[in-house]
Amino acid sequence: MVARYGNFVTYDPPLTPLTVLLWVLPLAAIVAGGWIIVARTRRRVRLRREPLPADTPVCGARAGWGVYVPGAVIALAVGAGSYALTGSYPQVRAWQQATAQTPGLLARALDPQAQPLNEEEMARLALGLRTRLQNDAGNVEGWLMLGRTGMVLGNAGTATGAYANAYRLDPKNRDAALGYAEALTRSSDPEDNRRGGELLRRLVSRDHTDIRVLSLYAFSAFEQQRFGEAVAAWEMMLKLLPADDTRRAVIERSIRLAQEK
User: Fold this and answer.
1) Distance (Å, rounded) from C-alpha 73 to C-alpha 33?
2) Rounded Cα gap, residues 209 and 101, in angstroms
3) pLDDT score, position 259
């Protein structure tokens, strides 16, 4: 997302050479223009104070503001050029468009009858949600939606951060707890995996009949080589699922695989 819309979407843009250039070039243009104006003014004052020879022809009309036009044009050109190089106008424009499209994209995402969002639209929705949440950081549902969007996009950082905020705001919210646990278990960081497993263990202890919680817990335990816990969770799932459920075959294969470890 940073590559598409620029560093400003992180709300903590880094100090880069281009950022410095953005400030230095306009300042240099202003200083240069001011120096030209001061130099011309001093020259006119000096010429007025010097006595003129008797045969010196009378000067024409005093120079007007036109003498400053070249300096002003240079300053404007330098400022425009520096903004074109470092201002990321296309990215800012894309950000503004994503923010304006957020309500429509969100409505489509929540409507099961609407056309599913493609990857580009999901990215714009994520950007729009992040922008909204900067001004509405207490919106649990908004963080949950951003977390789901991050999971669909495969953006682990966005998903984990969004679910963490939702869980922090409402620890008793099942969707927040489960989403946060799932994001942690899918992380490449072993410490995140451990924390996700602990959270799933607490969720299982509260409700032994939640198929999704049991499934995530079994997967997490298997990935962390806690094969006994994984088998216990899968066996509990088999007791809860109907006899004709197609998931039973997959679970039975998983149990056999874990028992062979």
Assistant:
1) 10
2) 40
3) 92
> What does DSSP assign to residue 243?
T
Contact 203, 177 (CB under 8 A): yes
Q: Tell me how far CA of residue 169 lies from CA of 93, 134, 162, in angstroms.
A: 32, 15, 11
Place of tokens 């950000």: 95
* Selection from 173, 108, 115 nearest residue 141 by Cα: 173
Residue 72 has what pLDDT? 59
Give residue for tokens 């010097």. Answer: 50
CB 204 within 8 A of CB 233: yes
Of 253, 233, 230, 251, the residue nearest 242 (C-alpha): 251
Please identify which residue in the block is written with the tokens 């020259």: 43
For the chain, 261 residues long, the average pLDDT of each consecutive 10-residue run is 49 54 66 71 64 52 53 61 56 70 86 90 90 91 95 93 96 95 92 94 92 94 93 96 94 94 78
Report pLDDT for 64. Answer: 53
Look at residue 184 in the predicted model and tell me its pLDDT.
95
pLDDT score for 212: 93
Place of tokens 């620029």: 6
**Helices 190-206, 174-185: inter-axial angle, 10-degree rounding:** 150
Q: Is the dihedral of CA 228, 230, 233, 235 positive or negative?
A: negative
User: Of 153, 220, 154, nearest to 185 (Cα)?
Assistant: 220
Residue 67's CB: how many other CB atoms inside 10 A? 13
